[in-house]
Design goal:
This protein is an alpha+beta fold and about 180 residues long. The protein has one domain. Helix content is about 45%, strand content about 20%. The protein contains three helices and six strands. The strands form two sheets. Strands 1, 3, 4 and 6 form a four-stranded antiparallel β-sheet that branches. Helix 1 packs antiparallel against helix 2 and helix 1 packs across helix 3. The longest helix has about 40 residues. The chain is elongated, with a radius of gyration of 20 Å.
Amino acid sequence: MSENENLFWSKHYSLKWSDFKAEHNPASYADSHSVIKYRFTWTVDSEKMGSEILFLIKNIQVSVEFCPLLSSVRPSETSDQLLKYEQGRFDLAELVKREHISNLQTKFEGKNFPTRGKNEEQRKQLAKEDSGKMIAQEIEQLQQILEKRLQEYDETTDYGNNPEKQLEYALKFEELKL
Protein backbone atom coordinates (compact mmCIF):
# COMPACT_ATOMS: atom_id res chain seq x y z
CA MET A 1 0.00 0.00 0.00
CA SER A 2 1.42 3.39 -0.91
CA GLU A 3 1.20 6.26 1.55
CA ASN A 4 -2.01 7.77 0.16
CA GLU A 5 -4.05 4.69 -0.70
CA ASN A 6 -7.29 3.82 0.97
CA LEU A 7 -7.95 0.27 2.10
CA PHE A 8 -10.83 -1.60 0.51
CA TRP A 9 -12.91 -3.90 2.68
CA SER A 10 -11.96 -7.54 2.18
CA LYS A 11 -12.83 -10.69 4.07
CA HIS A 12 -9.10 -11.45 4.04
CA TYR A 13 -7.91 -8.22 5.67
CA SER A 14 -8.34 -6.89 9.18
CA LEU A 15 -7.40 -3.40 10.26
CA LYS A 16 -4.16 -2.87 12.17
CA TRP A 17 -3.22 0.12 14.28
CA SER A 18 -0.59 0.99 11.70
CA ASP A 19 -3.48 1.70 9.29
CA PHE A 20 -4.47 4.71 11.41
CA LYS A 21 -2.03 7.25 9.98
CA ALA A 22 -3.56 10.61 10.93
CA GLU A 23 -2.21 12.43 13.97
CA HIS A 24 -4.74 12.09 16.77
CA ASN A 25 -6.22 15.30 18.11
CA PRO A 26 -5.27 15.38 21.81
CA ALA A 27 -8.39 17.45 22.56
CA SER A 28 -10.67 14.77 21.09
CA TYR A 29 -12.88 12.89 23.50
CA ALA A 30 -12.71 9.76 21.36
CA ASP A 31 -9.73 7.43 21.64
CA SER A 32 -9.94 6.56 17.95
CA HIS A 33 -11.47 7.94 14.80
CA SER A 34 -11.97 6.15 11.50
CA VAL A 35 -13.15 7.50 8.18
CA ILE A 36 -15.07 4.97 6.10
CA LYS A 37 -16.80 5.76 2.84
CA TYR A 38 -18.26 4.23 -0.27
CA ARG A 39 -16.74 4.40 -3.75
CA PHE A 40 -18.49 3.31 -6.92
CA THR A 41 -17.74 2.42 -10.49
CA TRP A 42 -20.13 1.80 -13.35
CA THR A 43 -20.39 1.46 -17.08
CA VAL A 44 -22.54 3.72 -19.19
CA ASP A 45 -23.65 2.76 -22.67
CA SER A 46 -25.77 4.60 -25.20
CA GLU A 47 -28.42 3.33 -27.52
CA LYS A 48 -30.26 4.98 -30.39
CA MET A 49 -34.05 4.68 -30.18
CA GLY A 50 -35.56 6.34 -33.21
CA SER A 51 -34.14 9.86 -33.31
CA GLU A 52 -33.29 9.85 -29.60
CA ILE A 53 -30.10 8.65 -27.97
CA LEU A 54 -30.65 7.08 -24.55
CA PHE A 55 -28.09 5.92 -22.04
CA LEU A 56 -28.03 2.79 -19.95
CA ILE A 57 -26.21 2.25 -16.67
CA LYS A 58 -24.61 -1.17 -16.15
CA ASN A 59 -22.17 -2.96 -13.88
CA ILE A 60 -22.57 -0.77 -10.80
CA GLN A 61 -19.95 -1.81 -8.27
CA VAL A 62 -19.73 -0.32 -4.77
CA SER A 63 -16.73 -0.76 -2.51
CA VAL A 64 -16.14 0.15 1.12
CA GLU A 65 -13.00 2.15 1.85
CA PHE A 66 -11.12 2.89 5.03
CA CYS A 67 -9.13 6.12 4.79
CA PRO A 68 -5.84 5.74 6.70
CA LEU A 69 -4.73 9.35 6.27
CA LEU A 70 -7.95 10.56 7.90
CA SER A 71 -8.13 7.90 10.64
CA SER A 72 -6.37 8.19 13.98
CA VAL A 73 -5.93 6.63 17.39
CA ARG A 74 -4.70 8.01 20.70
CA PRO A 75 -1.31 6.27 21.02
CA SER A 76 -1.87 5.40 24.68
CA GLU A 77 -5.16 3.62 23.90
CA THR A 78 -4.21 1.05 21.24
CA SER A 79 -5.93 -2.03 22.63
CA ASP A 80 -7.22 -5.18 20.94
CA GLN A 81 -10.72 -4.31 22.19
CA LEU A 82 -10.65 -0.85 20.57
CA LEU A 83 -9.26 -2.27 17.33
CA LYS A 84 -12.08 -4.84 17.21
CA TYR A 85 -14.55 -2.00 17.66
CA GLU A 86 -12.98 -0.06 14.75
CA GLN A 87 -12.94 -3.20 12.59
CA GLY A 88 -16.62 -3.52 13.45
CA ARG A 89 -17.27 -0.06 11.99
CA PHE A 90 -15.54 -1.13 8.78
CA ASP A 91 -17.49 -4.41 8.73
CA LEU A 92 -20.76 -2.60 9.37
CA ALA A 93 -20.16 -0.47 6.26
CA GLU A 94 -19.76 -3.66 4.21
CA LEU A 95 -22.93 -5.11 5.76
CA VAL A 96 -24.94 -1.98 4.93
CA LYS A 97 -23.58 -2.04 1.37
CA ARG A 98 -24.64 -5.66 0.92
CA GLU A 99 -28.09 -4.93 2.32
CA HIS A 100 -28.66 -2.11 -0.20
CA ILE A 101 -26.64 -2.95 -3.33
CA SER A 102 -29.44 -4.81 -5.12
CA ASN A 103 -31.82 -1.85 -4.63
CA LEU A 104 -29.21 0.45 -6.13
CA GLN A 105 -28.60 -1.84 -9.09
CA THR A 106 -32.33 -2.37 -9.65
CA LYS A 107 -32.94 1.37 -9.68
CA PHE A 108 -30.64 1.89 -12.67
CA GLU A 109 -29.72 -1.28 -14.50
CA GLY A 110 -31.84 -2.27 -17.48
CA LYS A 111 -33.43 1.17 -17.72
CA ASN A 112 -32.99 3.83 -20.38
CA PHE A 113 -32.34 7.47 -19.48
CA PRO A 114 -32.57 10.47 -21.82
CA THR A 115 -29.39 12.22 -22.87
CA ARG A 116 -28.76 15.87 -23.44
CA GLY A 117 -26.31 17.58 -25.76
CA LYS A 118 -26.10 18.86 -29.31
CA ASN A 119 -24.27 15.98 -30.97
CA GLU A 120 -23.53 12.34 -30.38
CA GLU A 121 -20.09 12.93 -28.82
CA GLN A 122 -21.46 15.55 -26.42
CA ARG A 123 -24.39 13.29 -25.52
CA LYS A 124 -22.02 10.45 -24.66
CA GLN A 125 -19.91 12.74 -22.47
CA LEU A 126 -22.98 14.16 -20.71
CA ALA A 127 -24.45 10.66 -20.26
CA LYS A 128 -21.30 9.69 -18.32
CA GLU A 129 -21.56 12.86 -16.23
CA ASP A 130 -25.30 12.56 -15.60
CA SER A 131 -25.17 8.85 -14.75
CA GLY A 132 -22.34 9.53 -12.29
CA LYS A 133 -24.39 12.24 -10.58
CA MET A 134 -27.43 9.97 -10.39
CA ILE A 135 -25.46 7.16 -8.77
CA ALA A 136 -23.60 9.60 -6.48
CA GLN A 137 -26.96 10.77 -5.08
CA GLU A 138 -27.84 7.18 -4.22
CA ILE A 139 -24.40 6.59 -2.68
CA GLU A 140 -24.88 9.72 -0.55
CA GLN A 141 -28.13 8.23 0.75
CA LEU A 142 -26.29 4.98 1.44
CA GLN A 143 -23.64 6.96 3.35
CA GLN A 144 -26.41 8.56 5.44
CA ILE A 145 -27.87 5.14 6.22
CA LEU A 146 -24.39 4.03 7.26
CA GLU A 147 -23.95 7.07 9.52
CA LYS A 148 -27.19 6.20 11.34
CA ARG A 149 -26.17 2.56 11.69
CA LEU A 150 -22.70 3.54 12.93
CA GLN A 151 -24.25 5.80 15.55
CA GLU A 152 -26.48 2.91 16.66
CA TYR A 153 -23.43 0.60 16.74
CA ASP A 154 -21.45 3.15 18.79
CA GLU A 155 -24.26 3.57 21.32
CA THR A 156 -25.16 -0.13 21.55
CA THR A 157 -21.57 -1.27 22.06
CA ASP A 158 -20.65 1.79 24.13
CA TYR A 159 -17.82 2.40 21.65
CA GLY A 160 -16.59 -1.17 22.08
CA ASN A 161 -16.74 -1.10 25.88
CA ASN A 162 -19.75 -3.43 26.16
CA PRO A 163 -18.26 -6.89 25.46
CA GLU A 164 -21.65 -8.65 25.19
CA LYS A 165 -23.00 -6.26 22.56
CA GLN A 166 -19.66 -6.13 20.75
CA LEU A 167 -19.74 -9.94 20.55
CA GLU A 168 -23.29 -9.85 19.11
CA TYR A 169 -22.09 -7.58 16.33
CA ALA A 170 -18.91 -9.62 15.83
CA LEU A 171 -21.03 -12.71 15.19
CA LYS A 172 -23.05 -10.82 12.54
CA PHE A 173 -19.83 -9.62 10.93
CA GLU A 174 -18.38 -13.14 10.81
CA GLU A 175 -21.04 -13.99 8.23
CA LEU A 176 -19.48 -11.41 5.88
CA LYS A 177 -16.27 -13.43 5.81
CA LEU A 178 -17.84 -16.71 4.70
